[in-house]
């Protein structure tokens, strides 16, 4: 008669369990280190698109205005500031609105924000900060760049909620 043999015990040893836990921990660290930055970056294209929309619409609005407060505002550009017999153009130190509200801006340098970021509003001065939450913009008007006094360089900077600045620039000539 053959002796009865007990079956060998099956399962994991303590060493195998510890190795398994270590491997699982390492793989979790690798996965999360890939996923977390991507989740954060997934919002970036949305900020970029919204900033591009804001920047181009604000730039279009600015470029549609007169070159200067002392220019012809009738739209025909019959005379220009700085010409013989016409008033001189606004000095760079006086850039900014001449007492106008946002909805009444009539020349390019009215939009000059003097280095400050301000909340988003539309061309009538209606506050849009609820729609563009945590966005802000700054406009810098400079007529001294490269010695070109007959043109104003307009720089629009849109600041996205993540702190990234998107810059747009254009020249407005005296016409
Ligand atoms: Ca003005």
Brief digest:
This protein has two helices and four strands. With 175 residues, the chain is an alpha+beta fold. Strands 1-2-3-4 form a four-stranded antiparallel sheet, with helices on one face.
How would the blueprint of this fold be written?
Blueprint (H helix, E strand, L loop, with lengths): L13 H28 L2 H20 L54 E2 L16 E7 L8 E9 L5 E9 L2
Antiparallel strand pairs: 1-2, 2-3, 3-4
The structure holds calcium ion (CA).
Molecular structure report:
Keywords: Membrane, Transmembrane, Transmembrane helix. This is Prepilin-type N-terminal cleavage/methylation domain-containing protein. The chain is rod-shaped and about 125 Å long. It is built from two helices and four strands. The protein has one domain (45-173). A hairpin with an 8-residue loop joins strand 2 (136-142) and strand 3 (151-159). Strands 1-2-3-4 form a four-stranded antiparallel β-sheet, covered by helices on one side. It is an alpha+beta fold and 175 residues long. It is 27% helix and 15% strand. The structure holds calcium ion. The site of calcium ion (CA) has 7 residues, from loops.
